[in-house]
Amino acid sequence: MSPTNYLLLSGLLFTVGAIGVLVRRNAIVVFMCIELMLNAVNLSLVTFARMNGQLDGQVMAFFVMVVAAAEVVVGLAIIMSIFRTRRSSSVDDANLLKY
Amino acid sequence: MTAPPEVLPATGAGSLAWLLFAIPAVSALVLFLAGKRANAWGHVLGVASVLASFVLGVVIFVQTLGVAPDQRTTELSLYSWISSGTLDVDFGLRIDPLSLTFVLLITGVGSLIHIYSVGYMAPHAGAEPSSDSSRRRFFAQLNLFVAAMLVLVLGNNFVLLYLGWEGVGLASYLLIGFYQDRPSAATAAKKAFLMNRVGDVGLALAIFVLWLNLGTLQYTEVFARVGELSGGTILAITLLLLLGACGKSGQFPLQSWLPDAMEGPTPVSALIHAATMVTAGVYLIARTNPIYDLTPTGRVVVALIGVVTLLIGAVIGCAYDDIKKVLAYSTVSQIGYMILAVGLGPAGYALGIFHLLTHGFFKAGLFLGAGSVMHAMNDDVNMRNFGGLGRRMPITFVTFGCGYLALIGFPFLSGYFSKDAIIEAAFGQEGWQGWVYGLAATLAAGLTAFYMTRLMIMTFFGEERWRNLKAPDGEDYHPHESPPVMTGPMIVLAIGSVFAGFVLSAVGLNQWLAPSLGELQESPAGVLPHALVPWLVLACSALGVLVAYLVVGRRPTPVQRPEPVSFPVRAARRDLYANAFNETVIERPGIWLTRALVFLDNRGVDGLVNGLAAGLGGGSARLRRLQTGFVRSYALSMLGGSVFVVAALLAVRFA
User: Which residue segments constitute the domains of chain A, with CATH numbers given?
Assistant: First the structure.
């Protein structure tokens, strides 16, 4: 099977994730979209690894997963605490850090 | 040209020569630092220190007289003063006939004037206690002056000369502005300082040029090697030295500070601005005579400056009513004679120093006399308020008269010997120079006789105009003779004015100075026979006296200054427009230039910096509005940025 299809799927997933980050307000959804983008990248990494017959890309994908797991822990904790103080999980409501 | 005399190390009393200036310097330091504690005895210390220097000077002089003329030039190196790269300057003294002559003049006349100042600067009865400390301050500054002047004449290199040169400039500045509560004194001090600075720059540049070309600044080495330089360099050096001399000696075109310097106390005018400091320019040119010997052109410029100045001084002296300013312009004029003399070269160096010495006596005496008159007349200086004072203050009258006769060249008094010798040497020049120098000097001699006679008549003769007048401080005038502490020095100086010329020429001042200045060359016959010159000068002076008698003596002097007057008088009253000229040509453009520069600095340089800062500040204030706090807009800009970077990469890759 040609790698093109995998890469197209990867691009599609990335685009969906990116648009989701840009247009959705709910912090949880934004977060999930970020995960989507990360995994889209993972997919392309694995594809290229397979294409070139090297393991580098797969190793990189594992790294991304580990980092993503850590990120989810911290990120969800932040979202939780923001929700507790502000009673909202909208990213537009958390706009205190500005000029 | 004779070979320069051998320089020997100083021995005996000569090795103590450093004490000459160390004593007054320490005394000045003590008086400055001791403060009020020294009020009671400050003047005693001041007088004693200068007297001690004088005694030491006499001892060294006598010792030097005892050796052969070719062994009279000695040097004393005290320590290595500046050693930097190839520049090596010793704190060394040169004790030779020229410097000893000056030492005796400075400490001798200086002692007399110090003694006089004890009386002149004494606090008036009932004056506030601060005037006591002002006398101490006065003596401290006067001692500082004596020390600096001695360093100037004793140094054996140009750097030490410059140190003394600046030292006397400082002392002069301090003493002109001595009456700190008078704005006019402060202004005069500043003016003197600034105009001296112009000259000092010339001297400094001359020293730089010498060092650049010869790599040494010691007199002996410079004079031995100056012949190696090109004519243009030598001319430049002599002209720069002349600029220095013009500044310090009040010569054209830097003469206008000297009359203003009369704002200082009268003893200062006598010591600094008549007898010693203002003759430093003459000393400078005489000292550097081996350089001037090499450049006839440079000497012509020197002589012309002298001629212009002696005429200017004599003309303006005729118009002033301020007794001290008349004497000041007389000083300007007499120093013009000296500069003319040293400008004549080997035929005139010794004559210039001769006139300097006799002038030191009679002009110091005249100033002390003027101080005595002011002392008697509530510090008034306007001669129109005087008159008939000869009967009130006989000692002042007689001593002042001696100085007057000496100055106008009355036969066989001091001025007769020294001034006539200069005029003879001036007529001794060939061609146009002989006529110009000689006639100008003769004319100025006549003018000198005129203005001095006018001064004498207005002050000591005629109707007692002060009887019907009030002093500036609102009291009646009570003219009285000065105390002995003041009249004593005046009497000594009067004796000097009468006999100095005769004695100095009889004992052979010219031969005495020969080791320093070279043999005095008998001036050639020139344009006028020597036998004729004294008669010509005498006739001219007599004419001056006669005219003064006819103009001033035969009719009462109006108390109010007559206005309007003819153009020459108007011009002379305004210093021949020297101040107006300086103001228009130098001061005003200077002010405009400064204003333009300030404007350029404020608006241009500062404007650039401030504008940049304001632009950045304003820009950032607008730019920070982009920081909205909305996470999604940040994400959009990140996306945009990433897309841009990727697009750029691709464009480079596939273009």
Answer: 3-86 (1.10.287.3510)
